[in-house]
Amino acid sequence: MGTLEKEINRRRTFAIISHPDAGKTTLTEKFLLYGGAINLAGSVKGKATARHAVSDWMEIEKERGISVTSSVLQFEYDGFCINILDTPGHQDFSEDTYRTLMAADSAVMVIDASKGVEAQTRKLFKVCVMRKIPIFTFINKMDRDANDTFELLDEIEKELGIATCPVNWPIGSGKRFKGVYDRDEKCVITFSDTEKGTKEGETKVISIDDEEALISAIGEEAMGTLNDEIELLDGASAEFDLDLVQSGDLTPVFFGSALTNFGVEFFLQHFLEMTTTPLPRKSDAGLIAPAENDFSAFVFKIQANMNKAHRDRIAFMRICSGKYEASMEVKHVQGGKVMRLSQPQQIMASERKILEEAYAGDIIGVFDPGIFSIGDTLCMPKETIKYEGIPTFAPEHFARVRQMDTMKRKQFVKGITQIAQEGAIQIFQEFNTGMEEIIVGVVGVLQFDVLKYRLENEYNVEIRLEPLPYEHIRWIENKEEVDLNKLVGTSDMKKIKDLKGNPLLLFINAWSVGMTLDRNEGLVLSEFGRD
Ligand code: G4P
Predict the structure, then answer these.
(1) Residues paired with 83 in a beta bridge
(2) What does the pLDDT look like over 387-400, one tens digit per residue?
(3) Which residues line ligand 1 (CB under 6 A)?
(4) Domains of the chain (ranges plus CATH)?
(5) How far is the CA of 47 from the centre of ligand 1 (A)?
(6) How far is residue 84's CA from residue 82's CA, in Å, rounded to a whole number?
(7) pTM for the whole thing?
(8) Nearest residue (CA) to ligand 1, atom 36
(9) Contact between residue 141 and residue 256 where contact means Cβ atoms under 8 Å apart
(10) Which residue's CA is the closest to the ligand 1 atom numbered 10?
């Protein structure tokens, strides 16, 4: 195997999806304890450092003390080169969070054992399902009182529609958490609280057949319950099947406690074995295999700089095939130009490191003088391939934009169109009129502030945003077959169109979506927009 192939095969690129507070940051930090050299792109928003993380992208970021940038982080473990993509939550949840999932080959879903499946996890999960990438579940906080294990699994299956296969099984929870049972090795790994565990605690591994040792380690009652549960589980749960895992139809489930560092390395080891090497990607020239092709990449995110003194932007790209070397010439397919990537770097928390080389599976950030758009392809100068575009994800907040000074119409249209092209917001128009009435849609409400701030600071245009009550947007998949004027909608439905003239429907209530589908035979609606 050549060096290129070896380097690519040892790469694992995944995103962590969870609802805020489930323990994503804590788990990531524990992963890093096991890793060697750490490259931080953006920052792990560790509580102590988050507010001071060096990131001059946006003043809003500083003002609010939150990280607007989704970050990428690279570390080495056991011969693997691991790229973790962070998917920010809270107010900084935005369309970028979804787009980040387009650059990942698998996802780790962290669930709080006492809360089960929560809203943000559900949203991010939908994107993973659309991409059919493998999903691994880590049920966290077992050192706290947890929901019934069978009920948790049932909830995942019913709410998310994916089969589950527990790899280990918890013995109690909270104060009575005794450890986990490793179903493959048929042994119990005992829990010991390490007080916020900077290291792994002292665990014992006891065979399930060693009754005496088990009774002394976990007690008779816990052992009895465990035996009953194992029997139930063996009869009821799905068999482990790696093909189903890799096609995203079955999620392996692990139990642990990130805070006390219990079950984290177990998870990491099993996850690395089960997840995939960098996946081939669809292009207009067919599937592009990572190791058999020269350099190619696509842009999945563009980060604008809010600081007026530096009007630069950073384009984040995922390398899909081959190797990137500093100063090599590449072709920007959509721009039709051969160029050298300017300052290729991994964006570090406190410094930006110029990259010498990177391989398929890696993420790089490059200086963008305003030429890249989301979804653009880069490849070798002699080639011309285009990767499949990145869909537009459903915004959940809408507002009508009112311009304060109508004399500045031109700047306003230019500014708002550019910001929309960068992918920070989506803009729509009334179905039957032009640009005079603009409706803006965002995934996270913070983007409204970003829009206002940028229009004022970069384009010198003041706006007022009037919130609209809509929460659900649907693209019409079969727009050629549907006569919009004859569509029978609900009273809370509004027809709009995007800048390309594609028709869309807005709804206030979720049930109206179903109602509209019922009333219009043959209508196909989608939560993702594709060109
Ligand atoms: P997030 O990135 O998903 O938002 O979650 P984060 O890791 O920041 O964790 C949220 C809170 O849950 C933190 O507590 C963290 O310490 C706690 N936590 C994470 N994993 C576990 C676990 O396995 N067991 C228990 N008991 N708690 C866990 P906090 O009080 O908000 O922050 P801190 O003051 O402890 O840093």
Answers:
(1) 13, 74
(2) 999 999 999 999 99
(3) 18, 20-26, 47, 140-141, 143-144, 257-259
(4) 12-68+108-274 (3.40.50.300), 281-379 (2.40.30.10), 397-526 (3.30.70.3280)
(5) 9
(6) 6
(7) 0.88
(8) 47
(9) no
(10) 21
